[in-house]
Amino acid sequence: MTYAVLRHFLTRQRLKKLQPFLVLAFFLAVAVIAVNWWKEDRRGTPITVYNKVTKGLEMTDTGAGYLSSRTVNSCRVKGCPEAAQSSLWYRVTDDDGNAGYLAEVWVVRDQRGGLGLPNC
Question: Is residue 73 part of a domain?
């Protein structure tokens, strides 16, 4: 558009009519940017699940570690003998978007101990 056409199209009256929509569009754009920045900050530190346990002299694949809605070790409640236990839990979100708590015993050995993350 040339300047003359643009000047003819954007008269003061038309700009006054468009003003609420322009303000709304501006705040909507700011909100979208803020939400994306917030999501970026919340991604956190990736961890690797180690789902193998010993059964006698062999290693057994137990399937993936489970996400719990509470930080309660089911073996501690059931009294499982000689089961690995930890009071450290990670709040995680998996690749499918499922969120929950994962006991430290399901994490690979070099990522145990809190990873320098703040305590909840």
Answer: yes
Full residue range of the structural domain in which residue 36 is found: 3-41
Residue 78 falls inside a structural domain: yes
What gap in Å lies between CA 103 and CA 112, rounded to an integer?
10
* Dist. CA 28–CA 26, nearest whole Å: 5
- Is 117 in contact with 45 (CB distance < 8 Å)? yes
Tell me how many domains the chain contains.
2
Query: Could you report the per-residue pLDDT of 6-57, keeping only the tens digit for each?
Result: 677 777 787 788 888 889 999 999 998 888 776 655 567 788 887 766 555 5
